[in-house]
């Protein structure tokens, strides 16, 4: 992964994707550009974490548990705090526990609740990764100044808030024929 050369002309999202026609709207271009950027950053983080045989989701869980301290957290609280949704949080924790990075125990007051704690081995691993991940974070925003980074954080927060406000409307049932048509559209390249 080489740094982009200083002064190199920026390519449009259409050029980057090899798309010959412009997107049908600036909304579509913005959404695809955001997803493409997130995928590139995730790919870079995955590369850094692969050295320690961790996925970004496992790293996220370890960071969450390190922040929770000695109190630990219930499984569902970890899932809710994750950057990226993890449907298989139990499997994710199983792998971390087998590697010796996480320990789970039943809560004394409520035996149905499982509390998760990071082990010393997990703390040591995260401490080793602090430097390389900080460097990856620096790289992700190195082409922006502090004001631009702050503005980016605000703009992304506004986008997330818009999605959070519309979550209830997304739960509207979809008829099977609409689902099939949506799947067919999803397989086509965006325009």
In a nutshell, what does this entry contain?
By secondary structure, the protein is mainly alpha-helical.
Describe this structure in words.
- With 191 residues, the chain is mainly alpha-helical.
- The protein has a domain at 56-128: Orthogonal Bundle (Arc Repressor Mutant, subunit A).
- It contains 9 helices and 3 strands.
- It has helices at residues 13-17, 26-50, 56-68, 75-81, 89-98, 120-141, 146-165, 167-170, 176-187; strands at residues 73-74, 102-106, 114-118.
- Strands 1-3-2 form a 3-stranded antiparallel sheet.
- Strand 2 and strand 3 form a beta hairpin.
- The longest helix is centred in the first third of the chain and has 25 residues, at 26-50.
- Residues 1-8 and 178-191 have low confidence and may be disordered.
User: How many helices does DSSP assign?
Assistant: 9
Strand segment tally: 3
Which structural class do the helices and strands define?
mainly alpha
Any idea what the CATH superfamily of the domain at 56-128 is called? Answer: Winged helix-like DNA-binding domain superfamily/Winged helix DNA-binding domain
What order do the helices and strands follow?
A: HHHEHHEEHHHH
Tell me the radius of gyration: 20 Å
Q: In which order are the strands of the major sheet placed?
A: 1-3-2
Would you state the CATH class of the domain at 56-128?
Mainly Alpha
CATH fold descriptor of the domain at 56-128: Arc Repressor Mutant, subunit A
Overall 3D form = elongated
Question: How large is the share of residues in beta strands?
Answer: 5-15%
